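Let's study a protein:

===
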Amino acid sequence: MKSLLFLLDSGRRASPFDITMAYDAGFDIVIPYENVTARDAKLLVQDAMFSRSPKAFKNTCFFISGRDINRAKEILKVVQDAMFPPYETSVIMDPSGAYTTAVAMVAKVEDALSTGNLGKLSEKKCAVFGTGPVGVTVAEILTSLGCKVIIAEPNPMLSWEYLLKHEAVRGLIERHGAYIEGAFAPRRTEKRRIVQESDIVFCAAARGVQVIEEEILRAIKPVKILVDINAVPPLGIEGVEIKDDMREILPGIYGIGALVVGDIKYKLQKEVLRQARENETSRIYDFNYMLELARQMFQGKKKAIII
Protein backbone atom coordinates (compact mmCIF):
# COMPACT_ATOMS: atom_id res chain seq x y z
CA MET A 1 0.00 0.00 0.00
CA LYS A 2 1.50 3.35 -1.08
CA SER A 3 2.15 5.93 1.64
CA LEU A 4 0.43 9.21 0.74
CA LEU A 5 0.96 12.69 2.15
CA PHE A 6 -1.63 15.35 1.37
CA LEU A 7 -0.08 18.80 1.84
CA LEU A 8 -2.83 21.30 2.67
CA ASP A 9 -1.42 24.81 2.20
CA SER A 10 -3.56 27.88 2.86
CA GLY A 11 -1.21 30.00 0.74
CA ARG A 12 -0.96 30.32 -3.02
CA ARG A 13 2.13 28.13 -3.38
CA ALA A 14 3.07 24.91 -1.61
CA SER A 15 6.63 24.78 -0.31
CA PRO A 16 9.18 22.83 -2.41
CA PHE A 17 11.14 22.37 0.84
CA ASP A 18 8.26 20.51 2.50
CA ILE A 19 7.59 18.40 -0.60
CA THR A 20 11.26 17.43 -0.91
CA MET A 21 11.52 16.62 2.79
CA ALA A 22 8.45 14.38 2.59
CA TYR A 23 9.91 12.36 -0.25
CA ASP A 24 13.27 12.12 1.51
CA ALA A 25 11.46 10.85 4.62
CA GLY A 26 10.04 7.97 2.59
CA PHE A 27 6.57 8.98 1.43
CA ASP A 28 5.73 7.37 -1.90
CA ILE A 29 3.52 10.18 -3.17
CA VAL A 30 3.09 13.79 -2.00
CA ILE A 31 -0.02 15.62 -3.22
CA PRO A 32 0.02 19.41 -2.65
CA TYR A 33 -3.19 21.46 -2.48
CA GLU A 34 -2.93 25.25 -2.44
CA ASN A 35 -5.25 28.09 -1.34
CA VAL A 36 -6.95 25.58 0.94
CA THR A 37 -9.81 26.86 3.11
CA ALA A 38 -11.34 25.16 6.13
CA ARG A 39 -14.26 24.03 3.97
CA ASP A 40 -11.87 22.65 1.34
CA ALA A 41 -9.99 20.75 4.04
CA LYS A 42 -13.07 18.93 5.26
CA LEU A 43 -13.97 17.74 1.75
CA LEU A 44 -10.41 16.73 0.94
CA VAL A 45 -10.00 14.74 4.15
CA GLN A 46 -13.30 12.91 3.73
CA ASP A 47 -12.54 12.07 0.11
CA ALA A 48 -9.16 10.68 1.16
CA MET A 49 -10.72 8.74 4.05
CA PHE A 50 -13.34 6.88 2.10
CA SER A 51 -11.00 5.93 -0.75
CA ARG A 52 -9.29 3.42 1.56
CA SER A 53 -10.21 0.91 4.23
CA PRO A 54 -9.69 2.05 7.84
CA LYS A 55 -6.51 -0.05 8.05
CA ALA A 56 -5.15 1.27 4.75
CA PHE A 57 -6.03 4.85 5.76
CA LYS A 58 -3.16 4.68 8.27
CA ASN A 59 -0.89 4.97 5.21
CA THR A 60 -2.42 8.37 4.45
CA CYS A 61 -1.15 11.47 6.34
CA PHE A 62 -1.94 15.17 6.22
CA PHE A 63 0.53 18.06 6.42
CA ILE A 64 -0.91 21.52 7.19
CA SER A 65 1.06 24.54 6.02
CA GLY A 66 0.64 28.16 4.97
CA ARG A 67 2.01 31.44 6.28
CA ASP A 68 -1.19 32.35 8.16
CA ILE A 69 -0.89 30.46 11.46
CA ASN A 70 -4.47 31.16 12.53
CA ARG A 71 -5.84 29.83 9.26
CA ALA A 72 -3.60 26.77 9.63
CA LYS A 73 -5.06 26.21 13.11
CA GLU A 74 -8.58 26.44 11.68
CA ILE A 75 -7.69 23.85 9.05
CA LEU A 76 -6.18 21.59 11.72
CA LYS A 77 -9.41 21.68 13.73
CA VAL A 78 -11.46 20.86 10.64
CA VAL A 79 -9.16 17.97 9.74
CA GLN A 80 -9.43 16.58 13.27
CA ASP A 81 -13.22 16.94 13.32
CA ALA A 82 -13.57 15.32 9.89
CA MET A 83 -11.96 12.09 11.07
CA PHE A 84 -13.65 9.57 13.35
CA PRO A 85 -12.92 6.02 14.51
CA PRO A 86 -11.84 3.85 12.81
CA TYR A 87 -10.90 6.44 10.14
CA GLU A 88 -8.07 8.22 11.94
CA THR A 89 -4.52 9.00 10.91
CA SER A 90 -1.61 11.34 11.68
CA VAL A 91 -1.58 15.07 10.99
CA ILE A 92 1.52 17.27 10.88
CA MET A 93 1.11 20.96 11.72
CA ASP A 94 4.03 23.07 10.47
CA PRO A 95 2.80 26.31 8.86
CA SER A 96 5.55 27.74 6.64
CA GLY A 97 8.01 25.58 8.57
CA ALA A 98 7.45 27.87 11.56
CA TYR A 99 6.91 25.10 14.11
CA THR A 100 10.01 23.06 13.30
CA THR A 101 12.15 26.20 12.97
CA ALA A 102 10.90 27.74 16.22
CA VAL A 103 11.31 24.47 18.09
CA ALA A 104 14.85 24.11 16.73
CA MET A 105 15.73 27.59 18.03
CA VAL A 106 14.27 26.99 21.49
CA ALA A 107 15.61 23.45 21.89
CA LYS A 108 19.10 24.56 20.85
CA VAL A 109 19.08 27.33 23.46
CA GLU A 110 17.85 24.90 26.13
CA ASP A 111 20.71 22.55 25.31
CA ALA A 112 23.25 25.38 25.22
CA LEU A 113 22.15 26.60 28.66
CA SER A 114 22.33 23.09 30.08
CA THR A 115 25.72 22.31 28.52
CA GLY A 116 27.20 25.62 29.67
CA ASN A 117 25.66 25.48 33.16
CA LEU A 118 23.98 28.81 32.47
CA GLY A 119 20.69 28.11 34.21
CA LYS A 120 17.25 27.14 33.00
CA LEU A 121 15.42 28.70 30.09
CA SER A 122 12.31 29.26 32.21
CA GLU A 123 14.37 31.60 34.42
CA LYS A 124 15.42 33.81 31.50
CA LYS A 125 13.90 36.93 30.02
CA CYS A 126 13.73 36.54 26.26
CA ALA A 127 13.35 38.92 23.34
CA VAL A 128 11.97 37.85 19.97
CA PHE A 129 12.54 40.17 17.00
CA GLY A 130 10.06 39.49 14.21
CA THR A 131 6.29 38.99 14.28
CA GLY A 132 6.01 36.55 11.38
CA PRO A 133 5.08 32.86 11.80
CA VAL A 134 8.45 31.86 13.29
CA GLY A 135 8.67 34.80 15.70
CA VAL A 136 5.10 34.32 16.93
CA THR A 137 5.70 30.58 17.42
CA VAL A 138 8.97 31.13 19.30
CA ALA A 139 7.17 33.57 21.60
CA GLU A 140 4.30 31.10 22.07
CA ILE A 141 6.68 28.30 23.06
CA LEU A 142 8.70 30.51 25.40
CA THR A 143 5.62 31.79 27.23
CA SER A 144 4.31 28.22 27.57
CA LEU A 145 7.60 27.38 29.31
CA GLY A 146 7.13 30.24 31.77
CA CYS A 147 9.60 32.70 30.26
CA LYS A 148 9.05 36.43 30.35
CA VAL A 149 9.00 37.47 26.70
CA ILE A 150 9.03 40.66 24.67
CA ILE A 151 8.10 40.28 21.01
CA ALA A 152 9.30 43.20 18.93
CA GLU A 153 8.65 44.31 15.36
CA PRO A 154 11.71 46.08 13.88
CA ASN A 155 10.19 46.89 10.48
CA PRO A 156 9.89 50.72 10.24
CA MET A 157 7.22 50.35 7.54
CA LEU A 158 4.79 48.90 10.10
CA SER A 159 3.39 50.12 13.42
CA TRP A 160 2.33 48.40 16.63
CA GLU A 161 -1.26 49.50 16.03
CA TYR A 162 -1.11 47.75 12.66
CA LEU A 163 0.34 44.62 14.22
CA LEU A 164 -2.38 44.44 16.86
CA LYS A 165 -4.80 43.94 13.98
CA HIS A 166 -2.76 40.85 13.02
CA GLU A 167 -4.71 37.97 14.53
CA ALA A 168 -1.67 35.84 15.37
CA VAL A 169 0.06 38.65 17.30
CA ARG A 170 -3.12 39.86 19.00
CA GLY A 171 -4.09 36.33 19.98
CA LEU A 172 -0.63 35.66 21.39
CA ILE A 173 -0.79 38.73 23.65
CA GLU A 174 -4.36 37.97 24.73
CA ARG A 175 -3.51 34.38 25.67
CA HIS A 176 -0.26 35.11 27.50
CA GLY A 177 -0.67 38.70 28.71
CA ALA A 178 1.03 38.01 32.05
CA TYR A 179 4.17 36.70 30.35
CA ILE A 180 4.49 38.70 27.16
CA GLU A 181 5.00 42.30 26.15
CA GLY A 182 4.74 43.71 22.66
CA ALA A 183 6.95 46.45 21.27
CA PHE A 184 7.51 48.40 18.07
CA ALA A 185 11.28 48.76 17.73
CA PRO A 186 12.42 50.24 14.41
CA ARG A 187 15.02 52.55 16.00
CA ARG A 188 18.38 51.67 17.55
CA THR A 189 17.41 53.12 20.94
CA GLU A 190 14.44 50.75 21.28
CA LYS A 191 16.46 47.78 20.10
CA ARG A 192 19.25 48.55 22.58
CA ARG A 193 16.78 48.74 25.46
CA ILE A 194 15.17 45.42 24.54
CA VAL A 195 18.49 43.60 24.07
CA GLN A 196 19.91 45.08 27.27
CA GLU A 197 16.91 43.91 29.32
CA SER A 198 16.95 40.39 27.87
CA ASP A 199 19.06 37.34 28.61
CA ILE A 200 18.38 35.62 25.30
CA VAL A 201 17.62 37.23 21.94
CA PHE A 202 15.91 35.36 19.10
CA CYS A 203 16.07 37.08 15.73
CA ALA A 204 13.37 35.82 13.36
CA ALA A 205 12.91 38.89 11.20
CA ALA A 206 12.81 39.10 7.40
CA ARG A 207 15.62 37.60 5.34
CA GLY A 208 18.47 39.88 4.36
CA VAL A 209 17.61 42.54 6.93
CA GLN A 210 20.06 43.45 9.70
CA VAL A 211 18.12 44.03 12.90
CA ILE A 212 20.83 44.34 15.56
CA GLU A 213 24.10 46.15 14.85
CA GLU A 214 27.37 45.36 16.59
CA GLU A 215 27.28 48.85 18.14
CA ILE A 216 24.24 47.73 20.18
CA LEU A 217 26.04 44.58 21.35
CA ARG A 218 29.10 46.53 22.47
CA ALA A 219 26.89 48.72 24.66
CA ILE A 220 25.19 45.91 26.61
CA LYS A 221 26.16 43.76 29.54
CA PRO A 222 26.89 40.01 29.32
CA VAL A 223 25.86 37.14 29.71
CA LYS A 224 23.62 36.78 26.66
CA ILE A 225 22.81 34.25 23.95
CA LEU A 226 21.89 35.55 20.50
CA VAL A 227 20.13 33.29 17.98
CA ASP A 228 19.73 34.33 14.35
CA ILE A 229 17.93 32.32 11.63
CA ASN A 230 18.73 34.72 8.79
CA ALA A 231 21.17 33.10 6.35
CA VAL A 232 20.84 35.80 3.67
CA PRO A 233 23.33 38.71 3.92
CA PRO A 234 23.22 41.01 5.67
CA LEU A 235 22.56 38.68 8.58
CA GLY A 236 20.02 39.59 11.26
CA ILE A 237 22.54 40.11 14.06
CA GLU A 238 25.86 41.67 13.14
CA GLY A 239 28.72 39.49 14.37
CA VAL A 240 26.74 36.23 14.50
CA GLU A 241 27.88 34.03 11.61
CA ILE A 242 25.76 31.30 10.06
CA LYS A 243 27.96 28.46 11.44
CA ASP A 244 28.29 29.84 14.97
CA ASP A 245 27.52 27.32 17.68
CA MET A 246 27.77 29.23 20.97
CA ARG A 247 30.80 31.13 19.70
CA GLU A 248 31.78 34.01 21.97
CA ILE A 249 31.40 36.92 19.57
CA LEU A 250 32.08 39.51 22.30
CA PRO A 251 33.05 38.97 25.95
CA GLY A 252 30.18 37.08 27.58
CA ILE A 253 27.99 37.22 24.44
CA TYR A 254 27.45 33.99 22.54
CA GLY A 255 26.07 33.47 19.06
CA ILE A 256 24.07 30.67 17.43
CA GLY A 257 23.82 30.95 13.67
CA ALA A 258 21.31 30.06 10.99
CA LEU A 259 23.00 26.89 9.72
CA VAL A 260 23.20 25.43 13.22
CA VAL A 261 19.48 26.06 13.75
CA GLY A 262 18.74 24.89 10.21
CA ASP A 263 20.49 21.57 10.73
CA ILE A 264 18.36 20.89 13.81
CA LYS A 265 15.18 21.93 11.97
CA TYR A 266 16.04 19.65 9.04
CA LYS A 267 16.63 16.62 11.25
CA LEU A 268 13.54 17.36 13.33
CA GLN A 269 11.21 17.75 10.35
CA LYS A 270 12.55 14.60 8.71
CA GLU A 271 12.03 12.62 11.92
CA VAL A 272 8.48 13.95 12.31
CA LEU A 273 7.68 12.97 8.73
CA ARG A 274 9.24 9.54 9.22
CA GLN A 275 7.25 8.92 12.38
CA ALA A 276 4.01 10.07 10.77
CA ARG A 277 4.62 7.68 7.87
CA GLU A 278 5.63 4.67 9.96
CA ASN A 279 3.52 4.91 13.12
CA GLU A 280 0.24 3.04 13.03
CA THR A 281 -1.14 5.15 15.89
CA SER A 282 -2.79 8.39 14.76
CA ARG A 283 -1.17 11.50 16.25
CA ILE A 284 -1.14 15.29 15.94
CA TYR A 285 2.41 16.51 15.42
CA ASP A 286 2.35 20.09 16.75
CA PHE A 287 5.06 22.21 18.35
CA ASN A 288 4.48 20.64 21.77
CA TYR A 289 5.24 17.18 20.42
CA MET A 290 8.11 18.53 18.31
CA LEU A 291 9.75 20.17 21.33
CA GLU A 292 9.74 16.91 23.27
CA LEU A 293 11.12 15.10 20.24
CA ALA A 294 13.88 17.71 19.77
CA ARG A 295 14.83 17.36 23.43
CA GLN A 296 15.13 13.61 23.02
CA MET A 297 17.19 14.08 19.88
CA PHE A 298 19.63 16.27 21.83
CA GLN A 299 19.79 13.53 24.44
CA GLY A 300 20.53 10.97 21.73
CA LYS A 301 17.13 9.29 21.97
CA LYS A 302 15.66 9.06 18.49
CA LYS A 303 13.05 6.40 19.09
CA ALA A 304 9.34 7.18 18.91
CA ILE A 305 7.82 9.05 21.82
CA ILE A 306 4.96 7.46 23.69
CA ILE A 307 2.58 10.05 25.18
Notes: The chain has a mean pLDDT of 93.
